[in-house]
Write a structure and sequence with these properties.
mainly alpha, 68% helix
Length: 101
Amino acid sequence: MLRYRMNKIINLLENNSFPNVRDIVLAPENEKALKVLIDLKCVQPLYAWGGEIVDLKLLDHSVTYTLERRDIWLNRFYGFMAGVLTTVAGTLLIHAVQILL
């Protein structure tokens, strides 16, 4: 759920499809996701004099984060396909050995 929120915040900032930054910052469900994005240097907050966040700047690392997420899913897909192929090849090999014996 956290990664979903992180991706949602990045998409909102990329598309400028939010009415106000305060809507993102003050939403309780975005609190952890926003903190993680700031820690990962994906988003840079701009603070007002009182310490509240008034703007969010999307940094270059956000693109890298998004690409890393895609790479993770591609690696999972490749691993799944390799497992299926290994299972099929192993089953065929076992049947071939049983026929020969």
